[in-house]
Amino acid sequence: SETTTFTATSTTTPIPGSCYPPTVGMDKDTSNCSGVFPPDGTCFVACAEGYSGIPEVFYCYTEEEGFIGTPPTCTSSTTTTSSSRTTSTSSTTSSTTSTT
Question: Which of 51, 60, 93, 95 could cross-link with 74 by S-S, CB 3.0 to 4.6 Å?
Answer without folding.
Answer: 51
